[in-house]
């Protein structure tokens, strides 16, 4: 039996099904089809396949997407001048950087500095004069522009206090939590970051200070330039302790829980700087610490059911995964089970 | 090509129209790469937010080439991130539970069509799915890919022929179903 479709003009038939043929060409195809019942069978069949190929189409809710996009809108809509016009002492600035959605974090990564420079409408707050205090809740970040042009990106669950008289002559800020600094060097007005236990003095640079109260360690990591780090002493202001270290770019200074200052010559920069670009990066990070960081980032609470799990370390990079997905991935890599209750996640070993 | 666009009062409506016109097809494009609805929506959202934030509007008259390029890049980045993660623990469970689930009923024509489409040669599949799943015209496909409409026509014809061959086993089934319903009509 000869195949009825040996001489099928496939291109024309496809264009016919696609509605891409001019009317008179389409009429010719119809006549060709009607000329042989086997062709009719074939075209009926092809119609099924054609429609079936569109049946796998996914459907997405455009209204929901527009709502999500609009939720990002107020970030730009409020002019920084208005929001921070009267920077009063001990003023607390809660800035609604809707970074709960991790995918938005990715956007911040690319858009943060760019936004501030390019469009002038951004979430970057600027300190005019007087003292100011900025706080970020969990799950949010904030950019702060200091009067001297230096920039600070405040990590989640952090506080930055800019003292009154900033820049006259010293530029001293206090930090709890984590922040990334881009400092304009000015020898006449030394820049210093004080935390509960350390002082970091910039010598013209980009660096990160991580000093969360619930972590035993304080870390200072230098992306570029030089930073001096010393133990902070009550009443000593921004003065450095005699055992201070001068860190070069790529180095980390760490104040351990028992008060020792230790230098690491090659810090994993992504671990410390990744978050400023919206990445969460872990490299041999103790699991409990990693989970605390994940918790602060997504404003969730992740716990280990068994203390024996605390000895594990995590090496991973996350970018735009939602928080629940990150927890699931971490659990999967340690073969742990996830129990979720609202925003609380408990990881436990799988029952044998 | 993305161009900087001064903030204008009608940016919102232009942007909204853009999203309405192309969101579903971009989602379908991303789904082709990521095989997950949530990941596909995230990828498209990422691209749309970048446009939104920068107040950069793609050439409004012809936004598809830029949008397609951007979503495709976003998907490739997402896949790379997945891969990086997968390398950190080889025992990790598969990331996508939706993928790799065998069809319950292998005789199901729709599932067979989906498999046949997946089995098309890459370029052929790309063009065929741009038409069938992403609802683009020949001219739009040609514009996005920078090829001639004639090439699109050839690839579509090739896809149709390949699908016909791969799905040949289903032909008698469909024809007999049609014959049976014709017989029903006649005997009534």
Q: How does this model look, in words?
A:
The complex is a heterodimer of chains A (352) and B (188). Chain A has 352 residues and is of the alpha+beta class. Chain A is 29% helix and 29% strand. Chain A has 10 helices and 20 strands. In chain A, a hairpin with a 5-residue loop joins strand 14 and strand 15. Chain B is mainly α and 188 residues long. Chain B has a two-stranded antiparallel ribbon with strand order 1-2. The longest helix of chain B has 25 residues, at 64-88. Chain B starts with a strand and ends with a helix. The interface between A and B is large, with 59 and 66 residues.
In short:
The complex is a heterodimer of chains A (352) and B (188). Chain A starts with 9 loop residues before the first helix and ends with a strand.
The count of DSSP E runs of length 2 or more, i.e. the number of strands of chain B, is 2
Uncertain segments of chain B are 1-9, 86-106
Strand count, sense and barrel status of the largest sheet of chain B are: 2 strands, antiparallel
Rounded to an integer, what's the Rg of chain A over CA atoms?
29 Å
What percentage of residues of chain A falls in helices of 4 or more residues?
Answer: 25-40%
- How much helicity do the residues of chain B have? 55-70%
Please write the string of helix (H) and strand (E) elements of chain A: HHHHHHEHEEEEEEEEEEEEEEHEHEEHEE
Class by alpha and beta content of chain B: mainly alpha
Report the sheet-strand fraction of chain B: under 5%
Tell me, rounded to a whole number, the average pLDDT of chain A. 76
Largest sheet, spatial ordering of strands of chain B = 1-2
Which assembly state applies to the chains in this document?
Answer: heterodimer
End-to-end separation of chain A = 62 Å
